[in-house]
C-alpha cells in the first residue's frame, strides 16, 4: 500500500497464512532508526522522515524462522545440523558449576535412588503367593498391593528400572528363604531409602536448566505459569502421543512385574513340576529368582540396545527415536502372547519368549525420556515430566495389576474351582498386555509424524530465534531510537 512519503511492503508470508510481517521502511537515504543510523539504504528507497519507526508483528508459534537466519536449515540459511553445539568439558563446568567428578557422583546417586525405587516396589511381587495365602485374598485384591551424552546418561539412569525391579524379586524371595518369614523381605529397602535421602541432600546439586543447550549469546528463557505450560504441552503432539505410548509400556511392565512370578508358579503346578501352595505351608518356588534375573539381564540389554540403535539411526532418519520405541512395543506384543500361550506346554519356552519380549519392551525406557527432553523447552520440562509420570502411573502400572487381577477373579468364578482354573484365569487376563502393547506402538508411530517439527520448534525457542506468543498476544514491537515498546495493533493507524 502506498501513501504520502511511505511504502508498505510484504516481504514474506508463512505457509499461506493470513498473518504477515509489515515493514514501514524509512524513505530518506542514509537515515534509519537506532543502531542502523548512518548506514546507506539500498537504491530505490523513497525519502521520508528520520523518525519513521520500523514496525514488525511478533512471531507466532506456527511461524517458522525468518528465511536466511544463519545457522538454521533452509534454502536461504547456512546448512548446519539441527542439534545445538555442545560445549567441551571445561565449558560444561563453567556453565553448570559442577566438575566432571561431581557430575558423575550425582548421576550415581540418582541411579541408586531410581534403582531403590523399583527394588522396593517389586519386593512384594517376589513373595506374592505367600501374601495371598497369609491374608486369604484373591487376585483382584492382590492387584491393589502394587499400584548423545545425554542419551548415554539417560541409558545409565534407566538401567536402574529393570535392574531394580529384578533385584526386588531376588531380595524378596531370598530374604524370605533365609529368614523363614516373608515379613522380613519387606524390611530390606527402608534402610537403604534412608541412605538415599542422605545422599540426595549431601551430594546432588541441580545445574541451570537448559544452560548447555542455549547458545552463549541467546537470551535466557523466562519461566511461564503452570497453566501456560499445560496449554503449550497440550499443543505438542509429540509429547502427548509419546506419553500415551509410555503409559502403555508402564501398563505392560506393571502387570508382568506383579503377576509373572505367580503365573509361572501356577504353570508349574499345572505341569506337575511343583506342589501347590497349601494353607499353612510356605510357597516354595524358584520362579521369583529366575524371573528377577531375567528382568535384570533383559533390562540392561534392552535399554542399551534401544539407545544404541536410535543413536545410529538418527544419522539417516530424524524420526529414529519414536520408530525404535514403536518397534520395541510392537515386537514385544507377539512374544509376550506366545509366552502365555506356551506356559501349559513348556515352561522353558515360556521363559525364552519372556526374555525376548522383555528385551524389546526395555528398549523404550531411555529413548522416551530423551524424546521429552528435546521436544519440550527446559523451563517446561518439570511440568512435562510430572504430567507424564502421573499419566503413566494412573493409567499404567498403578491400575493394570488390579485390572488383571479383577479379570482373573471374574473368570475363576465362572469355572469349577481347580488349580487349572486359577492358571487359565490368570493366563487369559494377562493376554490383555499384548493388546495394550500394540496400542502403545501405534501411539509411537503417531509420534514419528510430528517429531521433526516439534523438536525444531523447541530448539528455536531455546536459542531465542522463535518467540512463543500467548493466546492474547496481539501486540507489535515498535523500536524507537534503540529501545522497544509494545503497543496494541489496534492503536496503529494504517
Put simply, the count of helices is 18
Shape estimate: globular
Secondary-structure content class = mainly alpha
User: How many angstroms does the end-to-end distance come to?
Assistant: 9 Å
Oligomer: single chain
**Quick one: biggest sheet?**
3 strands, antiparallel
Cα gyration radius (Å): 29 Å
Order of helices and strands: EEEEHHHHHHHHHHHHHHHHHHEE
The total beta strand count reads 6
Uncertain runs = 1-83, 489-494
**Major sheet strand order:** 1-2-3
Helix % is 55-70%
Percentage of residues in strands: under 5%
Average pLDDT, all residues: 74
Describe what this molecule looks like in 3D.
It is a single chain. By secondary structure, the protein is mostly helical. Helices cover 57% and strands 4% of the residues. It contains 18 helices and 6 strands. A 3-stranded antiparallel sheet has the order 1-2-3, with no helix packed on it. Helix 6 packs across helix 14, helix 10 runs antiparallel to helix 14 and helix 12 packs antiparallel against helix 13. The longest helix is centred in the middle third of the chain and has 35 residues. The chain is globular and about 70 Å long. The N and C termini lie close together (9 Å). The N terminus and C terminus are likely disordered.
Amino acid at each position: 500500500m502506498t501513501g504520502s512519503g511511505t511504502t508498505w511492503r510484504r516481504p514474506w508470508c508463512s505457509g499461506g497464512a493470513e498473518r504477515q510481517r509489515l515493514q514501514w521502511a524509512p524513505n530518506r537515504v542514509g537515515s534509519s532508526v537506532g543502531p542502523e543510523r548512518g548506514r546507506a539504504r539500498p537504491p530505490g528507497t523513497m525519502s521520508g522522515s528520520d523518525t519513521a519507526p520500523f514496525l514488525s508483528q511478533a512471531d507466532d508459534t506456527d511461524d517458522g524462522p525468518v528465511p536466511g537466519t544463519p545457522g538454521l536449515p533452509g534454502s536461504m540459511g547456512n546448512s548446519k545440523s539441527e542439534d545445538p553445539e555442545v560445549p567441551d568439558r571445561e565449558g560444561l563446568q563453567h556453565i553448570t558449576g559442577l566438575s566432571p567428578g561431581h557430575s558423575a557422583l550425582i548421576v550415581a546417586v540418582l541411579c541408586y535412588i531410581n534403582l531403590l525405587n523399583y527394588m522396593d516396589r517389586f519386593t512384594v511381587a517376589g513373595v506374592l503367593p505367600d501374601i495371598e495365602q497369609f491374608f486369604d485374598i484373591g487376585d483382584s485384591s492382590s492387584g491393589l498391593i502394587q499400584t548423545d551424552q545425554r542419551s548415554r546418561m539417560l541409558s545409565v539412569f534407566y538401567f536402574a528400572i529393570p535392574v531394580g525391579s529384578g533385584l526386588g524379586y531376588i531380595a524378596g524371595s531370598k530374604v524370605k528363604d533365609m529368614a523363614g518369614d516373608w515379613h522380613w523381605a519387606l524390611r530390606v529397602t527402608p534402610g537403604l531409602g534412608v541412605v538415599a535421602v542422605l545422599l540426595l541432600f549431601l551430594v546432588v546439586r541441580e545445574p541451570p536448566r537448559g544452560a548447555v543447550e542455549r547458545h552463549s549469546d541467546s537470551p535466557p528463557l523466562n519461566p511461564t505459569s503452570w497453566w501456560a505450560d499445560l496449554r503449550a504441552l497440550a499443543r505438542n503432539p509429540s509429547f502427548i502421543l509419546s506419553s500415551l505410548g509410555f503409559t502403555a509400556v508402564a501398563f505392560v511392565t506393571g502387570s508382568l512385574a506383579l503377576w509373572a512370578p505367580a503365573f509361572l508358579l501356577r504353570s508349574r503346578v499345572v505341569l506337575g513340576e511343583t506342589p501347590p501352595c497349601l494353607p499353612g505351608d510356605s510357597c516354595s518356588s524358584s520362579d521369583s529368582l529366575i524371573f528377577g534375573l531375567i528382568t535384570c539381564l533383559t533390562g540392561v540389554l534392552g535399554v542399551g540396545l534401544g539407545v544404541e540403535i536410535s543413536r545410529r539411526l538418527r544419522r539417516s532418519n530424524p524420526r529414529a527415536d519414536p520408530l525404535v520405541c514403536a518397534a520395541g512395543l510392537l515386537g514385544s506384543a507377539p512374544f509376550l502372547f506366545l509366552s502365555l500361550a506356551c506356559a501349559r506346554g513348556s515352561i522353558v519356552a515360556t521363559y525364552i519368549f519372556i526374555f525376548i519380549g522383555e528385551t524389546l519392551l526395555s528398549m523404550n525406557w531411555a529413548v522416551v525420556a530423551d524424546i521429552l527432553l528435546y521436544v519440550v523447552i527446559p523451563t517446561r520440562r518439570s511440568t512435562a515430566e510430572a504430567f507424564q509420570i502421573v499419566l503413566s502411573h494412573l493409567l499404567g502400572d498403578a491400575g493394570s495389576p488390579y485390572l488383571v487381577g479383577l479379570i482373573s477373579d471374574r473368570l475363576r468364578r465362572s469355572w469349577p474351582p481347580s488349580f487349572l482354573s486359577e492358571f487359565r484365569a490368570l493366563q487369559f487376563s494377562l493376554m490383555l498386555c499384548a493388546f495394550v502393547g500394540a496400542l502403545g506402538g501405534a501411539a509411537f508411530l503417531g509420534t514419528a509424524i510430528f517429531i521433526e517439527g516439534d523438536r525444531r520448534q523447541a530448539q528455536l525457542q531455546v536459542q531465542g530465534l522463535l518467540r512463543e506468543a500467548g493466546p492474547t498476544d496481539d501486540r507489535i514491537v515498535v523500536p524507537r531510537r534503540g529501545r522497544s515498546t509494545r503497543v496494541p495493533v489496534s492503536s496503529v493507524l494504517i
